[in-house]
Design a protein that fits this description.
This protein is an alpha/beta fold. Helices cover about 30% and strands about 20% of the residues. It has helices at about 10-20, 25-30, 30-45, 65-80, 120-125, 180-185, 220-230, 245-255, 270-280, 340-345, 345-360; strands at about 50-55, 85-90, 95-100, 115, 130, 135-140, 145-155, 170-175, 195-200, 215-220, 235-240, 260-265, 285-290, 320, 365-370. Helix 2 (about 25-30) crosses helix 3 and helix 7 (about 220-230) packs across helix 8. The longest helix has 16 residues, at about 65-80. The protein starts with 10 loop residues before the first helix and ends in an 11-residue tail after the last strand.
C-alpha cells in the first residue's frame, strides 16, 4: 500500500503516457490487466524515495573501505543508537548504499505546521533538513525551538507567509524550528540558513550536508553505471558533452586516476561554474571546462594550431559521454509533475541533434549515450 498519492500529471501528459504505456506489444505480452497494474505501480513508486541512498566514493583520494568506515561513524551520530548499515554495491566497486527506512506510519503530528515547497519536500524525503528559502508558510505563533510538523505543498497553491493552509498537503515528518515565524517572514534581507531541523522524518535517510565532502558524491545509481560502461582509461581524452553539475565528469576523472583529460562542456555559465566547484572539491585536476552549446561542438572547418576548446575537429576524443537534456520525469520522489505535453516532447529533437554531433565528432569511437532519464519515464 502506498504511503503517498501516486504522481499526478497535467491531463494531456497523463493521456499521452497512458497511450504510450498501453501499446499493443506490451498488452500482447502481459495482458491488459497486468500491463495496467505495472503502469499504476510505476506511478506510485515515482512519488516515493528510492529504497537506498547511493553515494559514490572519490577513489582518487581514499579507498572505499576507509570512506565506508568514516561514513558509518557519521551515520551513527545522526541516528543516535539506530544501527543503519553502510553496504558496498555487489558490482560497482566505488558505490556505497545506505538503506532508507520508511515510511514510518506511527509518527505523531503536531499542532504547529510548516508548509514547504514541493522541491524542498522532495529533498526532505531524501534526508535533507528544511532551509529557509523552501518555507512557504508557518502557523501563526511559531517560535524558535517549537516542535512542528512539516508538510509539502505539492500543487503549489499555498500563499507565501500564510498563517494556515487547507489545500492539498503531504506530511513529511516532524522537526524543531530554528527560527520564529517573524524571523522567517519579516527579515529585511532574505535568509538562507536552516529553518527546520528534521528529527522525525517519514523516510529516515542520512543528511549529507558537509559530510565528507571531498570523499563522497551523492549520485543516483543509473548515473554511476554510465561512466563504468564508458570505461575511460588513464591518459585518454574524454568529452562529457552536457556535463553539469559534474557528477559524471568527476567520476570519469576518478576512474582515469586523474590522468589524461576530461573536457566538460555545458552551455550555461552558472552550471559550468558548478562543474569547476565539484572538480576542485574532489581535488581532480584533469578536468577542463567550457561554456559552449553542444549542438555546435563540431568544427566544420579545419582548425589551426593547438586550440583545446570547442568546436572540435572530427576524431578529437577517445570516448564521449552524452547525458542529453531530458524531461526529468523519472527523478524520485515526485508527487506532481508540472510540465506540459509540449515541454515533455520538446526534448526529442534536441537529443537527436546532440546524438548526431557526437557521431560526427568521432564516428569510430566508443560513445555512451545516457538514456537513464529520457522523456519516457520508464527508461529510468
Amino acid at each position: 500500500m502506498s504511503f503517498f498519492p501516486k504522481i499526478s500529471f497535467q491531463c494531456e501528459v497523463e493521456q499521452y503516457l497512458t497511450k504510450v504505456f498501453r501499446n499493443n506489444e506490451l498488452v500482447t505480452a502481459l495482458g491488459t490487466q497486468e500491463a495496467e497494474c505495472k503502469y499504476q505501480s510505476l506511478l506510485s513508486r515515482l512519488s516515493h524515495p528510492p529504497s537506498f541512498t547511493t553515494v559514490r566514493v572519490n577513489t582518487h583520494l581514499a579507498s572505499v573501505k576507509h570512506v565506508k568506515k568514516l561514513l558509518f561513524e557519521e551515520i551513527q551520530k545522526q541516528f543516535k543508537g539506530l544501527c543503519v548499515p553502510v553496504l558496498e554495491h555487489p558490482k560497482l566497486q566505488d558505490i556505497l548504499l545506505i538503506p532508507v527506512i520508511g515510511p514510518r506510519r506511527d509518527l505523531k503530528k503536531h499542532a504547529s505546521e510548516v508548509i514547504v515547497g514541493a522541491h524542498c519536500g522532495y529533498a526532505v524525503l531524501r534526508g535533507a533538513h528544511v532551509y529557509v528559502p523552501g518555507i512557504i508558510s508557518t502557523s501563526r505563533f511559531m517560535k524558535a525551538g517549537d516542535l512542528v510538523s512539516v508538510y509539502s505543498d505539492i500543487e503549489g497553491k499555498c500563499r507565501r507567509g500564510a498563517k494556515e493552509f487547507e489545500g492539498v498537503k503531504v506530511f513529511l515528518g516532524n522537526g524543531i524550528s530554528e527560527l520564529s515565524r517573524s524571523e522567517i517572514f519579516s527579515s529585511s534581507c532574505p535568509l538562507n540558513g536552516m529553518g527546520i531541523r528534521m528529527i522525525e522524518p517519514v523516510y529516515l535517510s542520512p543528511s549529507f550536508d558537509n559530510v565528507l565532502p571531498s570523499h563522497l558524491f551523492l549520485q543516483n545509481l543509473p548515473s554511476v553505471v554510465v561512466s563504468h560502461i564508458l570505461n575511460p582509461q588513464p591518459g585518454e581524452r574524454i568529452l562529457d558533452m552536457c556535463a553539469a553539475p559534474g557528477g559524471k565528469t568527476t567520476h570519469l576523472a576518478a576512474l582515469m586516476h586523474d590522468q589524461g583529460e576530461v573536457i566538460a562542456m555545458d552551455k550555461t555559465a552558472n552550471k559550468v561554474k558548478k562543474i569547476k566547484q565539484n572538480a576542485e572539491l574532489l581535488r581532480l585536476n584533469c578536468i577542463k571546462t567550457f561554456c559552449y552549446d553542444g549542438t555546435k561542438a563540431l568544427s566544420v572547418e579545419k582548425r589551426e594550431g593547438e586550440q583545446e576548446g570547442p568546436p572540435f575537429s572530427p576524431e578529437s576524443f577517445d570516448r564521449i559521454l552524452l547525458d542529453a537534456p531530458c524531461s526529468g520525469m523519472g527523478q524520485r520522489p515526485n508527487m506532481a509533475y508540472s510540465s506540459t505535453l509540449k515541454e515533455v516532447t520538446s526534448y526529442q529533437p534536441l537529443q537527436r541533434k546532440l546524438f548526431t554531433v557526437v557521431f560526427k565528432v568521432n564516428h569510430s569511437l566508443k560513445s555512451n549515450i545516457d538514456t537513464t532519464s529520457m522523456p519516457n519515464m520508464w527508461n529510468s
